[in-house]
Amino acid sequence: MSINKDLLGLDSLDTLPVISFSASQSLNASSAVREAISTGLPRLDEALDDSSSDEPRRSGGIIRGHVTEVFGPPGVGKTSFALTVASQALRDGGKVVWIDTGSPLATSRLKSLSSENLSQLTYFRAPTLPHLLALLIRPPRGFPPPDTSLIVIDSISSLFPGYFLSAAELKDRLAQGKITDKPQLQWLLNRKWNVIGDIASHLTRLAARNVAVLALNQTHTKIKGQPRATLHPVVAGGVWDTNVQTRIVLYRDLPDWRFAEVTKRAGKTMVVRLTEFIVPFRVGDDGLEAVGEPQSPEPIVPTPSRKRKADNEVADSQDEDSDEEFEWLGDDALLDEKE
User: Which GO terms describe its biological process (predicted)?
Assistant: First the structure.
């Protein structure tokens, strides 16, 4: 069994013409039944199925036509989650596009999870942020292939640290006089969010082709303005949050237990720590496995904060230090858009 591989070249991209849709076509598409790809966890599929929504659905799971984000700390099972969803998409007869931004695809693991022909999987390697932008903005001919049901990006956030300075680094440059005026500082702040916005918009356009887009996101830890240390996605912001219709956070909150929690569904932010949206699981040889019901974590009472409410919190974060959310700038005008 072979996998279609495409190592992205930036000098000879053959692009497809831009396809436009009329308002009537868009309306008909929006009223169509949304198909879903199972996560392999029946309870999580149920939690993802918004039966109260006006939008008709065939079943719960990773919805085609939507951008779904899965984020969590290292080692919690994000890639295993994506592999399980990909294997289910292959079993359903669809095609899968896997975009690797750093971690090679475990093809042997995927092959063991799916009995289907892996020739239905197309693998792209985007080792740098310009490669990923080129693939999304100026895609090669035939991307994505016809009948593609799932696009996985593993991960959307791993390429950003090498191209954009952290808040602490910007603070040091400001103190050293390397950043001399506010317009320069504003440009440095804006360019990251502009790139995130471009990526989010193009992922939404891909999803509009009745494709489920699954973006894996890493985390960093916020401290200031939060009731306690809180995990937050590395790639975030107003445009990104607007384009992500579904958000699932994976975390460990009890010894030897992993949890998947739905924090956004059908474009609506959910109240955190509700039992019906928290699904315990473990990662086994056959993918994600449902486990018995452990003692539920105590509900968290939201604490008023100057910042917006956190997406989720984890007691045992092992991730990056807080970037202090640009509070050191002393200019609220620079903060509004970033939040």
Answer: meiotic DNA recombinase assembly; reciprocal meiotic recombination
Which contiguous run of DSSP H or E holds residue 184? Answer: helix 182-207
DSSP 8-state symbol, 282: E
What is the number of alpha carbons within 13 Å of residue 251 lying toward its C-beta?
Answer: 25
Q: Which amino acid is residue 241, in one-letter code? A: D
119: burial class by Cβ within 10 Å (0-12, 13-18, 19+)?
exposed
In this structure, the number of other CB atoms found within 10 A of the CB of residue 320 comes to: 16
Residues 193, 197, 198, CA angle at the centre, nearest 5°? 120
Which contacts qualify for 189-193: CB closer than 8 Å, 24 or more apart?
A: 189/326, 189/334, 189/338, 190/337, 191/164, 192/160, 192/164, 193/237, 193/238, 193/239, 193/337, 193/338
Omega before 59 within 30 of 0, i.e. cis: no
For the chain, domains (ranges, CATH) are 24-290 (3.40.50.300)
**Rg (alpha carbons) of the chain, rounded to whole number:** 20
Cα 146–81–99 angle (5° rounding)? 40
Q: What is the pLDDT of residue 232?
A: 84
Record the pTM: 0.75
**pLDDT tens column, 245-289:** 999 999 987 667 899 999 999 999 998 888 899 999 988 877 788
Task: State whether residue 205 is helix, strand or coil.
Answer: helix
What letter represents residue 238's amino acid? G
Decide if 103 contacts 154 (C-beta within 8 A). Answer: yes
